[in-house]
C-alpha cells in the first residue's frame, strides 16, 4: 500500500443538506432532526491557503492529489493508484454525432476494479479506518462490490458484500476473487439496501454507502477535479453522466463549484445532463413530467449497475439538471446496446451497460438539439464492458470460421468484403 503523508485537516464535520444542522465527523448519515442526508463540511479558507494548481500537479498520480478537498483527517490514506484516468479528445464519435469538442472521461480503466467506484471506496475505507472500523461492507449492484472487496483486501479489512442474486457473473467473480463474504440476496437493489441498513444498525459495521455515505460520496468529486485539470484548468460547457442514486452526477458538479470557490478555475456555467435506462428511470420521468419529487419504480433493465428504483439523491439530481439548463433523458435497452457498440467501434472503448446508457443519451440529446455542436462536452464512462458480457454478447457479432489454408481465408475475405458482417452466420467456409 502506498501511503501519502497529510499536512493539514480541512474537514470540519458533517452538515444536513436540508436543515443545516451540524454534527461531528463520525459514522452518521441522517439528520436526527429532519432525517435529511448529511454531507461533509469543509474549511474552504484553509483549502485555499494550502492548495494551488502547482501543489496539486506535484501531488500523487491518484485522487489523493486533491486530498484537501476530501473528508479525511489522519496522516495516511489508502492509495492504490485510483483516479487520474484518461480524458480522451474524441475524433470519430464526435464526427459521427456532429460535435466539435467532445471529450470522454474513461473510468472503465480505473484501478483496481475498473470503475469509478474505486474513487468513492478509497475515500470511504480511509475514513472507515480513521473511525476505527475493522469490518467494512456495502450494498451493491456490482461495481461497488468489486471496489469494496478489492480495496478492503489491500487494506487488510474484514469485508462483507451484499448484492442482488441475479447480478452479472463477471461482477460476482470480480468480487469473490478478493475473498470477502458475499451475500447474494433474493431481491432488487432497493431491497438489498434496506436489509443492509438493518445489518449496519445491529452489527455496527462500516457500510460505505450507508453510515459512511457522507465520506464515500465525496470521492466522486474527483471526477470533476480531474476533468478541469486535464482541460487545462477550465470547466466544460456541458456534462453527460449516468444517474443511479444521483450521487455521482451531483458530486461532479460539486467538484466544479469547489474549484471555483477556492480560485483554482474561473467561474463558468456548466450544463449538467443525466442518463438513465428507460427500465429504471424515476429521475428522468420526474424531469419530463415537471415534478419536484421522485416516484419509486421497480427496475427492469439490462443496465443493472444504475438500476436504483428509489434513488437517495434523486431530488438533488433533478434540481441540478433544471438549475443548470441540462436534461435528464432515458433510453431503451436496445439503444443501450447500440450505445455500447457505437463507443467501441468509434473510440476503441468497451464500456458496460451504464456507459452504453450514457453514450445513447448523449446521442439522443444531440439529435434533439439539446447539445450544441460548439459546446465543449464531456461524457463520463464509468465502468468496463468486460463486467457485463451477458448483456452485449448476443449482439457483438460472430467469428468467421475457416480452414487452416490460404484458399479458405481468401474465400472468407471475399465474402466479408461484399456482405454485411452482421448478417453472417457461423459457417465453415
Automatic annotation (TrEMBL):
Q: Name one Pfam family in it.
A: PALP
Keywords assigned? Lyase, Pyridoxal phosphate
The keyword Ribosomal protein is assigned to this record: no
The family assignment reads: Belongs to the threonine synthase family.
Q: What is its EC number?
A: 4.2.3.1
PTM sites of type N6-(pyridoxal phosphate)lysine: 117
Cofactor list: pyridoxal 5'-phosphate
Q: Which CDD domains match?
A: Thr-synth_1 (cd01563)
What is the name of the protein in this document? Threonine synthase
Q: Name one GO biological process term.
A: threonine biosynthetic process
The source's superkingdom equals Bacteria
* Ranges for domain Tryptophan synthase beta chain-like PALP: 81-383
- PANTHER family, sorted: L-THREONINE DEHYDRATASE CATABOLIC TDCB (PTHR48078:SF6), THREONINE DEHYDRATASE, MITOCHONDRIAL-RELATED (PTHR48078)
Q: Which gene encodes it?
A: thrC
Amino acid at each position: 500500500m502506498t501511503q501519502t503523508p497529510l499536512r493539514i485537516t480541512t474537514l470540519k464535520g458533517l452538515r444536513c443538506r436540508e436543515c443545516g444542522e451540524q454534527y461531528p465527523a463520525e459514522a452518521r448519515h441522517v439528520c436526527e432532526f429532519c432525517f435529511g442526508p448529511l454531507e461533509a463540511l469543509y474549511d474552504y479558507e484553509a483549502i485555499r491557503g494550502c492548495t494551488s494548481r502547482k501543489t496539486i500537479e506535484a501531488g500523487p498520480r491518484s485522487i489523493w492529489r486533491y486530498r484537501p478537498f476530501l473528508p479525511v483527517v489522519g496522516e495516511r490514506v489508502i492509495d492504490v493508484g485510483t483516479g487520474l484516468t484518461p480524458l480522451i479528445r474524441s475524433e470519430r464519435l464526435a464526427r459521427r454525432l456532429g460535435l466539435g469538442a467532445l471529450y470522454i472521461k474513461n473510468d472503465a480503466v480505473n484501478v483496481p476494479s475498473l470503475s469509478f467506484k474505486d474513487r468513492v471506496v478509497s475515500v470511504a475505507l480511509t475514513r472507515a479506518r480513521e473511525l476505527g472500523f475493522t469490518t467494512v461492507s456495502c450494498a451493491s449492484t456490482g461495481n461497488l462490490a468489486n471496489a469494496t472487496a478489492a480495496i478492503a483486501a489491500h487494506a487488510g479489512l474484514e469485508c462483507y458484500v451484499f448484492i442482488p442474486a441475479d447480478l452479472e457473473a463477471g461482477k460476482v467473480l470480480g468480487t469473490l476473487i478478493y475473498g470477502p463474504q458475499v451475500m447474494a440476496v433474493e431481491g432488487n437493489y432497493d431491497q438489498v439496501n434496506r436489509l443492509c441498513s438493518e445489518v449496519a444498525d445491529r452489527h455496527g459495521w462500516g457500510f460505505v454507502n450507508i453510515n459512511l455515505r457522507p465520506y464515500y460520496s465525496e470521492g466522486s468529486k474527483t471526477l470533476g477535479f480531474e476533468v478541469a485539470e486535464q482541460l487545462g484548468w477550465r470547466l466544460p460547457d456541458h456534462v453527460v453522466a449516468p444517474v443511479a442514486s444521483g450521487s455521482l452526477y451531483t458530486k461532479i458538479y460539486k467538484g466544479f463549484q469547489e474549484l471555483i470557490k477556492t480560485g483554482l478555475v474561473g467561474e463558468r456555467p456548466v450544463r449538467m445532463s443525466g442518463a438513465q435506462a428507460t427500465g429504471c428511470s424515476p429521475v428522468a420521468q420526474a424531469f419530463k413530467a415537471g415534478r419536484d419529487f421522485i416516484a419509486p419504480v421497480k427496475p427492469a433493465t439490462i443496465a443493472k449497475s444504475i438500476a436504483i428504483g428509489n434513488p437517495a439523491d434523486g431530488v438533488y439530481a433533478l434540481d441540478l439538471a433544471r438549475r443548470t439548463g441540462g436534461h435528464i433523458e432515458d433510453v431503451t435497452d436496445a439503444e443501450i446496446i447500440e450505445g455500447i457498440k457505437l463507443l467501441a467501434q468509434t473510440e476503441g472503448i468497451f464500456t458496460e451497460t451504464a456507459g452504453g446508457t450514457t453514450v445513447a443519451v448523449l446521442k439522443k440529446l444531440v439529435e434533439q438539439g439539446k447539445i450544441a455542436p460548439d459546446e465543449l462536452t464531456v461524457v463520463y464512462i464509468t465502468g468496463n464492458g468486460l463486467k457485463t458480457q451477458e448483456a452485449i454478447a448476443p449482439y457483438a457479432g460472430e467469428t468467421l470460421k475457416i480452414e487452416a489454408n490460404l484458399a479458405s481465408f481468401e474465400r472468407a475475405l471475399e465474402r466479408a468484403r461484399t456482405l454485411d458482417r452482421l448478417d453472417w452466420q457461423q459457417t465453415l467456409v
